[in-house]
């Protein structure tokens, strides 16, 4: 099994998941993780183990989406 993570996916590529569909350009909505109220008194919201939840404003991302199975790949390099 190939585990190459550097396989280049471009618009028009064959879907790496189902090998049937064609990857087409699309828009995906990304979640934003936000810190809530500290879990324990004395903690700051940046303490280890704090609860985070998806609550921020969504982020619009460009993605490649398979037209057969719906598998999508976010087309972003170096996610911060
Ligand atoms: Zn597919």
Task: Tell me what the structure shows.
This protein is mainly β and 80 residues long. The protein has a single domain (1-36, 53-80), classed as Ubiquitin-like (UB roll). 0% of the residues lie in helices and 31% in strands. It has no helices and five strands. The chain has strands spanning 23-30, 33-35, 52-54, 59-66, 72-74. The strands form two sheets. It has a three-stranded antiparallel beta sheet with strand order 1-4-5, with no helix packed on it. The radius of gyration is 18 Å and the shape is elongated. It starts with 22 loop residues before the first strand and ends in a 6-residue tail after the last strand.
CATH class: Alpha Beta
List the bound ligands: zinc ion
Give the uncertain stretches in residue-range form.
Answer: 1-6
Helix content: under 10%
Q: In one word, what is the shape?
A: elongated
Named CATH architecture: Roll
Summarize the structure.
This protein is mainly β and 80 residues long. It is 0% helix and 31% strand.
Secondary structure layout plus pairing:
Layout (H helix, E strand, L loop, with lengths): L22 E8 L2 E3 L16 E3 L4 E8 L5 E3 L6
Antiparallel strand pairs: 1-4, 2-3, 4-5
The protein binds zinc ion.
Task: Quickly list its features.
mainly beta; Ubiquitin-like (UB roll); three-stranded antiparallel beta sheet; 5 strands; binds zinc ion
């Amino acid at each position: 099994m190939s585990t190459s993570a550097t396989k280049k996916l471009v618009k028009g590529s064959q879907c790496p998941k189902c090998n049937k569909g064609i990857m087409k350009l699309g828009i995906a909505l990304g979640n934003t993780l936000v810190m809530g109220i500290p879990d324990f008194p004395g903690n700051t919201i940046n303490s280890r183990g704090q609860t985070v939840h998806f609550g921020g404003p969504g982020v619009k991302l460009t993605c490649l989406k398979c037209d057969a199975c719906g598998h999508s790949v976010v087309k972003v390099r170096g996610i911060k």
